[in-house]
Description:
The chain is of the alpha+beta class. It has one domain (about 45-175): 2-Layer Sandwich (Beta-Lactamase). The chain is built from five helices and four strands, in the order ααββααββα. The protein has helices at about 10-25, 45-60, 85-100, 105-115, 155-170; strands at about 65-70, 75-80, 135-140, 145-150. The chain has a four-stranded antiparallel beta sheet with strand order 2-1-4-3, sandwiched between helices. Strand 3 (about 135-140) and strand 4 form a beta hairpin. The longest helix is centred in the N-terminal third of the chain and has 17 residues, at about 45-60.
Amino acid sequence: xxxxxxxKWNQPTLIPGVALLVLTLGVGSGGATNLPVEKVLPLSLxxxxxxxxxxxxxxxxxxxxxxxxxxxxxxxxxxxxxQAGPHTLDSSMxxxxxxxxLGLSTGVLTKIVAAHPDxxxxxxxxxxxxxxxxGLPVKAGAEVIGGIGVGGTPGGDTDEACAxxxxxxxxxxxx
Length: 175
């Protein structure tokens, strides 16, 4: 009985056989699908944007919460001023989520809903959607990589101004 250890391989026949197998199956990733590449909002930039928004509102005497989400709408950073109401946590998170998910500022969305009443059903997509001014998408080029939302000022325009101030702190590094 022959064992593998005792078997003698015919090397001249083996090499062309392996070469034929490689040519038949292909070399490298010729048939492979390229994986998509996503830009990611780093925690350091998300934190800096949130701190910038909080500081902008505090300088105006507003007590707010600010949330920054990643491209999938998950909260990366959530800050609440010492004197901000508890409801501001939810509104800031939902505004950031909405801006991320829909890729538009929530201020623009409020105008769309006002002009096109059918669009009001956007809020019914899920419980995280909040169409109130104060949320902005965070973009690297044309790609939405997150969102920033502020809640707690007397009006949506000031919520959005604070969110924009935070976003401006990091804009030069979003490429």
